[in-house]
Amino acid sequence: MVVVAKKIVGGKLIKLSFTTKDDFLVTFKLYGDFFLHPENTLDLIEQRLVGVHTSEIASVIQRVLDVCEAEFIGVTPQDIQEVIETHEVDS
Amino acid sequence: MKFRYIPVQTFSGAMNMALDEAIMKRVRSGESLPTIRLYKWKPSCVSIGYFQGLKQEIDEDACDKYEVDIVRRQTGGGAVYHDAEITYSLIAPTSYFAKDIKKSYQEICSSIVNALVDLGIMAEFSPINDIMVGPQKISGNAQTRKEGILLQHGTILVKVDVDKMFSLLKVGKEKISDKLVASVKKAVTSLELQGRSEEEFLVAFKKSLSADYNLIEGDYEDIELEDAKIIAAEKYGSLEWIGMR
Asked: In angstroms, what separates the C-alpha of A23 from chain B's closest C-alpha?
């Protein structure tokens, strides 16, 4: 499992806990001092990301945000994808 | 905009969180006016944001040792040590403020900024949700919107105790150097460090809020307090909620 913290420039601190296999997400949890409205959207984002290729993370998150009419503040879907792509270690 | 204004009262962390939720319900149903309440925390308390991991952020043994409560907010944002500060909650229909959440932070924080400026403190709103005096933070704020009702709560620091704060937060002890403590001390300020008292701020804040809203001084309804006691026991005081992430 990879655990990484990153302060987003101009945004908030995020902490990711994830595992990947052949560039696909096996587990994913997001923590941090960002905002997400409505807050319960995070559960759906975390569920939807399991089994997703790392190159698709941002687009899957954005789709969930669009369907739920939700909004991140302090982090973007692209920020999350970049952190994972930079730090993934195949398990 | 008519607001019920409830002056400072002191509650536990769980009760403070529960009162926000109880009042949101009553404002939603129209049984209570939109409300601005001021409060303190006893015992002192660490609140973590909705998305933070409890074990990642808080040294629970240290909180136990120093008899500091732990509570999880319904709002996002970071961990806050509530001790020598004034906390406010503003609860109103979302339609009262900008639809754009970032703009609404600025709108609501403007009352605090104006109060501080009135006291001669050169405060400015700093996006996303802070109020700064130069490079130093004096106020942090967090907002949620649920079923048409907006809650924004935040703190105005009266005194700062960075050493105590570090003892409660899960910063790797090997990372806490004199240099780190000194740099955090430089990053925050307080009414005391700005040469102003809590009492002076409360007068200025009420004056500022009165300029922005039609304040009607009031108190909690018995039913709000009763509802909040149940919510505090079942939710904010429960290990299930606190340890949710």
From this structure: 25
Contact B50, B73 (CB under 8 A): yes
User: CB count, 10 Å around CB of B151?
Assistant: 23
ipTM of the modeled complex: 0.95
Cβ <8 Å between B75 and A12: no
Torsion angle, CA of B112/B114/B115/B119, rounded to 10 degrees?
Answer: 140
Tokens, residue B183: 């740099």
* pLDDT score for A2: 87
- pTM given for the model: 0.94
- Tell me which H or E stretch contains A45: helix A41-49
CA distance linking residue A87 with residue A2, whole number of Å? 7
Give B 153-172 residues with CB within 8 A of chain A: none
- Cα→Cα distances B72→A62, B21, B79, B164, Å: 27, 13, 9, 19
**Which range is least confidently modeled, B112-116, B165-169, B178-182, B222-226?**
B178-182
For B28-54, the pLDDT digits (tens) are: 999 999 999 999 999 999 999 999 999
